[in-house]
Specification:
Blueprint: E1 14-18, E2 24-34, E3 37-45, E4 56-58, H1 64-68, E5 76-79, E6 83-87, H2 110-114, H3 118-121
Antiparallel strand pairs: 1-2, 1-6, 2-3, 3-5, 4-5
């Protein structure tokens, strides 16, 4: 990931939800744009989400130009037509939580928050 000319530590952390079923997809989301066309708004996350709907895609092997550009290192991308984001609050409950203040690994993973039966995940 190229970090020399860009930083995402001041960006708000979002809770990402499916527009169709309202299910929480990730508690570690970020507003983003498609690097190949910055007119296209997306959301992204750094950990795998869980959902039965097609709401985005997973970048398995990013191209060299994307890796060399200003990117946030997220490989799970969501279409803004399918997902909405709600800015998370920090521990004070007053200020927005920023990526620079978000721990690398949280005690509660998104899977814990979703509480989805195993049968729903196996499709």
């Amino acid at each position: 990931m190229s970090t020399s000319n860009c930083s995402f530590k001041d960006r708000c952390v979002s809770i990402l939800c499916c527009k169709f079923c309202k299910q929480v997809l990730s508690s570690r989301g970020m507003k983003a744009v498609l690097l190949a066309d910055t007119e296209i708004d997306l959301f992204s996350t750094d950990i795998p989400p869980t959902n039965g709907n097609t709401v985005g895609y997973h970048v398995i092997v990013p191209c060299c130009s994307c890796l060399l550009s200003c990117n946030n290192g997220h490989f799970w991308m969501f279409h803004s037509q399918s997902v909405y984001g709600i800015n998370r609050l920090d521990s004070t409950g007053i200020n927005f939580l920023l990526w620079g203040n978000l721990p690398e690994i949280e005690e509660n993973t998104d899977e814990d928050l979703l509480d989805i039966p195993t049968e729903e995940c196996i499709r």
